[in-house]
Amino acid sequence: MTISKSDQQILPALAKPYPRIAVIGSGSWGTALATVAKRAGREVVIWGRDEKTTDAIRERGENPKYLPGVELPKGIDATTDMGAALKDADAVLVVTPSKTLRKICARMKPHLKKGVPVALCAKGIETKTGLLLGEVAAEELPDHPIGALSGPTFAKETVLGHPTAATVAFDFTYADRLSPKDSPAARLAISMSSEFFRPYISDDLVGVEIGGAVKNVIAIACGMMSGAGFAENTRAALITRGMDEMKTLAEVLGGRRETVTGLSGAGDLTLTCSSTTSRNMSLGTQLGKGLKREECFDGKPVVVEGEVNSISVIDLAQRIGVSLPICESVHAVLHEGADLTQTFRDLWSRPIEAEPKALGLAFDHPFGENA
Ligand SMILES: NC(=O)C1=CN([C@@H]2O[C@H](COP(=O)(O)OP(=O)(O)OC[C@H]3O[C@@H](n4cnc5c(N)ncnc54)[C@H](OP(=O)(O)O)[C@@H]3O)[C@@H](O)[C@H]2O)C=CC1
Ligand SMILES: O=C(CO)COP(=O)(O)O
Questions:
Q1: pTM of the entire structure?
Q2: I need a labelling partner for 78 at 20 to 30 A (CA). Which of 7, 12, 305, 332 fits?
Q3: Which one of the ligands is nearest to 157 CA?
Q4: Which are the contacts of 201, defined by CB distance < 8 A and separation ≥ 6?
């Protein structure tokens, strides 16, 4: 059912913003989201474990560790005290890497007022359990609405004020559908909105989370092939077929196709697969050029979510019985010691398939393993 322009009810901006936003994580993206919330007119406090970083944000309006030389708005409070960060928070953004989420939520729990919404801004799936981050947070914080903020959003560009859009997703309760303006998704979207940052509201948390996790793996694939010397045809094919893998996983888990073709899916896939500003694309490129993993990023510890995402995405796919050939290829190279060139040659010579899948056709490839 499509909603025509005339039917689309433009609600007056009665959705009340959350006055005080707490951001947990003082890295690139946490700092960027704190900036977005500040520019939108909110009171903002950022929590980090590194006192030098929190002092720099609070006292000098800069984050020399993650965003050197980039000016932040004045007035962002910053602390290493979790209790102080959370005690008056009206909404929380969690922005530490996906693997830290369960412990961070447990650490937050004693300090959070019941009912305060928590939006997850990391991109990944919990490796040990295969749970989406929303499920992990719901287990640890059962008294809180859990959502996600995700989309094509390089941190530095966001802080520099480049017009950016992202999706804010929370599952809608019955009450939310009766009064959307009071839903956490609407209220958080309004809370983050400014002339530079344009949030879209979604009720499809699963679809948004799958998009964020899978795009990181596809970006590594794009980097691998780019580093190996292949160009735009190859990248376009990987992006397109990578979106199909994202759609396959999202739909089986209850996500929506429209979400996959939205900002948190196609949008973020396009961004992350198009620039070595993406750490996932950059890792793939370095590996494609022949560097060993320990040589990448000059050996510095860099957050590359796609490395663990490739494990959890494949684990999840196997649990539900779907095939994700590009993600499987990345997993083989990263975690099974497979040769990069041969792996992608095999990927390209899998049985000829139909697009759309509904045609149900597949034929042995003349250069495939059965040739
Ligand atoms: N960077 C970007 O452009 C974007 C990133 N994201 C997502 O945001 C998430 C965070 O990434 P990003 O901010 O880029 O990463 P960064 O490496 O820039 O920052 C990571 C932050 O997490 C903190 N951290 C790491 N481990 C722990 C821990 N165990 N306990 C507490 N704090 C910890 C680090 O603290 P310390 O400095 O003390 O190590 C640092 O403040 C990722 O899931 C990423 O996919 C999403 C959109 C854009
Ligand atoms: O998620 C991101 C942009 O939307 C950041 O991408 P990387 O994690 O690949 O750097």
A1: 0.96
A2: 305
A3: 1
A4: 167, 168, 169, 180, 183, 185, 186, 189
> Residue 216: which CATH number?
1.10.1040.10
Which atom of ligand 1 is closest in space to residue 154's alpha carbon? 3
286 and 153 share a domain?
Answer: no
Sign of CA dihedral 100, 141, 122, 257: positive
Ligand 2 pocket member 152 (CB < 6 A):
yes
Percent of the chain at pLDDT exceeding 90: 91
CA of 217, nearest ligand number: 2
Q: Are residue 146 and residue 245 in the same domain, yes or no?
A: no
ipTM: 0.99
Index of the ligand 2 atom closest to the CA of residue 216: 9
- Please identify which of the residues 74, 99, 181, 215 carries the catalytic annotation: 215
Catalytic site residue 215? yes
